[in-house]
């Protein structure tokens, strides 16, 4: 899993993006819900990619590792 940040197409607002998910759709939804609660932010799932509003890369990587996933930061 890779955790990065994107602003493209969002009028300069940044979102944290979790890509490389090899989970069933229901598991992705549960994971997205737990990450949104952990960060205290909104978000969505688009084409199997979790998007969380704001820059929460460090918190999301820590949470994914705690849940047993291999996760690393991507990009700058």
Tell me what the CATH architecture is: 2-Layer Sandwich
CATH class: Alpha Beta
Ranges where pLDDT stays below 50 over 5 or more residues in a row are: none
Shape: globular
Distance between the amino and carboxyl termini = 16 Å
Number of strands: 5
Strand content: 25-35%
Largest sheet: 5 strands, mixed
Order of helices and strands: EEHEEHE
Q: Give the CATH topology.
A: Translation Initiation Factor Eif1
Strands ordered across the widest β-sheet: 3-4-2-1-5
Average pLDDT:
91
Query: For the record, what is the CATH homologous superfamily label?
Result: SUI1-like domain
Number of helices: 2
> Structural class given helices, strands, pairing?
alpha+beta
- Proportion in helices: 25-40%
Radius of gyration: 11 Å
The overall number of domains is 1
Commentary on this structure:
This protein has helices at 25-39, 57-66, and strands at residues 2-6, 15-19, 43-46, 49-53, 72-73. The protein is of the alpha+beta class. The chain has one domain (2-73): SUI1-like domain (Translation Initiation Factor Eif1, 2-Layer Sandwich). It has a 5-stranded mixed sheet, covered by helices on one side. Strand 3 (43-46) and strand 4 (49-53) form a beta hairpin. The longest helix has 15 residues, at 25-39. It is globular and about 30 Å long. The two termini are 16 Å apart. The mean pLDDT is 91.
């Amino acid at each position: 899993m890779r955790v990065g940040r994107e602003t493209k197409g969002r009028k300069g607002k940044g979102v944290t993006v979790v890509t490389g998910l090899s989970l069933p759709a229901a598991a992705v939804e549960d994971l997205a819900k737990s990450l949104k609660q952990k960060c205290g932010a909104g978000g969505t799932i688009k084409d199997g990619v979790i998007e969380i509003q704001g820059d929460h890369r460090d918190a999301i990587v820590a949470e994914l590792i705690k849940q047993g996933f291999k996760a690393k930061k991507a990009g700058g």
